[in-house]
Amino acid sequence: MATISLSGIAKSFGDTRVLNTIDLDVEDGEFLTLVGPSGCGKSTLLRIIAGLEAPSGGGVDIGGRDVTAVRPADRNLAMVFQSYALYPHLTVAENMMTPLKLRDLSFWERFPILGPVLARGKHRALRDQVDETAGVLKIDPLLDRKPGQLSGGQRQRAALGRAMVRKPVAFLMDEPLSNLDAALRVHMRAELAELHRALGTTFIYVTHDQAEALTMSDRMAVMMHGDILQLDNPRRVYGDPADLRVAEFVGSPKINVLPGDADSDGRLSFLGLPVKRRIAGSHGGISIGIRPEHLRLSGAGEGALSGIVRHVEHLGSDIFLHVDIADGAHRLVARATPAEAERISIADPVNVAQVDGAAMAFAAEGHRLRFSEFGAASRETPQMDKAVA
Q1: CA angle 26, 32, 36 (to 5 degrees)
Q2: Secondary structure of 316-379 in the HEC alphabet?
Q3: Alpha helices (H) in 200-249, listed in sequence order
Q4: Structure pTM?
Q5: Where are the alpha helices (DSSP H) in the chain?
């Protein structure tokens, strides 16, 4: 195991800039997820760590050793791809043994018939390593099958086994669950998280699926347009986003974003409702963000917005109401309890109020505005011990 450090990593393809001076330190044994929309540069960054792409600038350090110019085979990293990349004509055991043969056996020792005779002990040791890894992944009964005889989840475990058997210093995973169905993805998320805890090895995981990032990561790096906008643990990234783009990307359904106003004393409001916080200084184009779970159904009156239900979204334990506000220009998504949803139909009038202290404010450029009862506002790095408006 080892730490992985990226310093000033930049990448361009011709005139197209893909990565903009990325600095990132991955701790030994950490599960770090690179998450962002398609085209944000996350897979390119992973390939640079693996050595499959050369950076246009900056360096890669693994375990205190500069590996920027070191070829991929000598970095002792294991990469798991979206396509699994299993050899279709080999069994699972043979697929898992292939990287060991390439690393540990000579040309003649790898020869199909002659090799096991010349190096019987080495071949037995390799098979023992395969059996040990298969036991960890619980794929012992699959070792004699070929990839075409496996389900999607079984192929995923076989690909993981081929990577694990080498005992790499880190695993690099590029959207490995995207080919699986929804139920199997949920199951494999839990399996991957448990496997990481059991191995204690560094995982760097690339995905565009925020649910994967939120449920598996020790830390997640939200990337957009070649930059890391926020690097923190999932709880803080969701509950305390540093940028409006992070707030809108992380969370399903999306955060409600509404135009805000500030009076001469810095008191904020949106659509005529007070936020009950203050900001210092002059900020034009303020936006107020409120998560759907921080809106509640209420009676008519002060502190509530009136609207019409246009859609009811049933997600099992969670039910979300899509409400067109009476001003005709905005729509809110609010979470309702099952009991409340039973009484509500499409086109019913409802009143929606905010949960006190749950709103967030963002400046016109997108950065988070920090509030206090005394009117202090800043662009500081988010901290959970500070009041969240």
Answers
A1: 120
A2: CCEEEEEEEECCCCCEEEEEECHHHHHCCCCCCEEEEEECCCCCEEECCCCEEECCECCCCCCC
A3: 210-216, 234-239, 244-249
A4: 0.85
A5: 42-50, 92-104, 114-118, 120-137, 152-164, 182-199, 210-216, 234-239, 244-249, 338-342
Give the Cα separation of 210 and 248 in Å (integer): 11
Buried b (16+ CB within 10 A) or exposed e, 234-260: bebbbbbbbbbbbbbbbbebebbbbeb
Can you tell me which residue has the tokens 């409006």?
244
- Beta-carbon contacts of 96 under 8 Å, excluding residues fewer than 6 positions away, are 130, 133, 134, 143, 158, 161, 162, 165
The amino acid occupying position 338 is: P
- Taking the C-alpha atoms of residue 203 and residue 194, their distance in angstroms, rounded to an integer, is 12
Per-residue pLDDT of the chain (389 residues; tens, 9 = 90+): 589 999 999 999 999 999 999 999 999 999 999 999 999 999 999 999 999 999 999 999 999 999 999 999 899 999 888 777 889 999 999 999 998 888 888 888 888 888 888 888 888 999 999 999 998 888 999 999 999 999 888 888 898 899 889 889 999 999 988 878 888 888 888 988 998 998 899 999 999 999 999 999 999 999 999 999 999 999 999 999 999 999 999 998 999 999 988 887 778 888 888 887 777 666 678 899 999 999 989 887 667 899 999 999 988 788 999 999 988 889 999 999 888 888 899 999 999 998 877 889 998 899 998 876 543 444 444 443 333 33
Q: Tokens standing for 41? A: 């540069």
Coil vs helix vs strand at 155: helix
Q: Are 174 and 163 in contact (CB under 8 A)?
A: no
> Which residue in 4, 58, 54 sits closest to 27, CA to CA?
4
Other CB atoms within 10 Å distance of the CB of residue 217: 24
Q: Which domains, from first to last, does the chain contain? A: 4-239 (3.40.50.300), 254-369 (2.40.50.100)
